[in-house]
Amino acid sequence: MKKAIVFLFVLCLGTVAHAQSAEKRVKVAIPGGKHYLYRLTLTDKKGTPFSVKKPQAFLSQRAIDRRKRQHISVTESDLPVSPKYVKKIAATGAGIVGTSKWNNTVVVSVKDTLQAEELKQLSFVSDVKKIWASPDSMRAQKREYVVPELKRAEKTPESVYGVGEKSIDIINGKPLHEAGFRGKGMVIAILDGGFMNADKVEGFKNTTILGSCDCGYPRVESIFAEGDHGTKVLSCMGTNLPDMFIGTAPEASYWLIRSEVGFYESLCEEDFWAMAVEFADSVGADVINSSLGYVGYDDKSMNHKYRDLNGKTALISRTASMLADKGMVLANSAGNSGASTWKKINFPSDADHILTVGALTPMKKNATFSSVGNTADGRVKPDVMSLGNPAAVISGRGIITTASGTSFASPVLCGMVACLWQALPDKTAHEIIDIIRRSADNYETPDNIFGYGIPDFWKAYEQNKK
Question: What pLDDT, on the 0 to 100 scale, is given for residue 235?
């Protein structure tokens, strides 16, 4: 995955990931010195004090209610990793970075590879895999200057939606808004690399941000002092500035979660992504936007192959494929590899039971960079298309501008997913995904460029309301 370098007032063709400032950052030593991260896969969850009969101990009431509403049972996979096992792992001297309950894995930091060999001897560890080796240095954290007053493009369309009008019109979402479905009561989690100044810029004064979480490593002082890729993604959905810029879910509530790390590309980011969606589940998110994707890594031996695009091989894709079964809908950017040698969708865009989103131009043509399908096992990808070349955004400096990439097509669509689900509250995550696909203009003849095509959200509502 290429890192997106965002230049203000210039269209950015960034894949998905931590957007960096054009300014150089000072390099500092890696916290803790040279070390490695390993993924430990555990055999079971024996010794856990948690029970599926008492989910309140590890899930919020909102997460429990979401499952009940969709007739989804809390299962052993929802139980946290055994604290007994985690304690024994820590006793070896390994640092605990994080855990994934759905995958029953623990990410640990060790000083040398000999420690990893010792971990293999633990009776409850079935596999040990190296997922990161620390570089010599990293960029120092620096918060960017915030423009005190919101600035916008010189010409704003004469519409209450302002610069956001084209984004919502292409997928026919405006009638849903007019019917009163603007995302109220829905919770959207955004996974990204940084949300520069999203807590400060004027453009989010009417946006409800419930909280934030850092699942990346090393942890940062503030996700609001990192890159602004996530800030732009949030703006596609959450902006609520009448006559200037209204996003696709202006009345939804948002959790902002960091899982992408800007100064390296490594397999461990798939583990952080898994931790992030599990956190989103636990706080009761309904919909998740992930404008993130992975193919190649700094250590080429970790790179994925075309044959891995089956929704099952990559840990990130296996995890994504579980989300609908937990009662959530994932919108994930298809990737920006369409004009590169890779060309195909990224991981976890190959996952089953999600909405993989490709990018359109304002003329409803596919953007040349938009990654194509299908999956290695023959499933249609991308699933649907949305405006992404370019889309209106608010930058981390508080400026209304534009940006290009499937990174922005995905949240444009994701916001409307939340509005549709608000309008059809009795539907399950699986049903919402199917309804959106069926509303698309290419549903009867899907292909590997447009997938099922451009969804029509008003049609999706009209054909499925009671």
Answer: 98
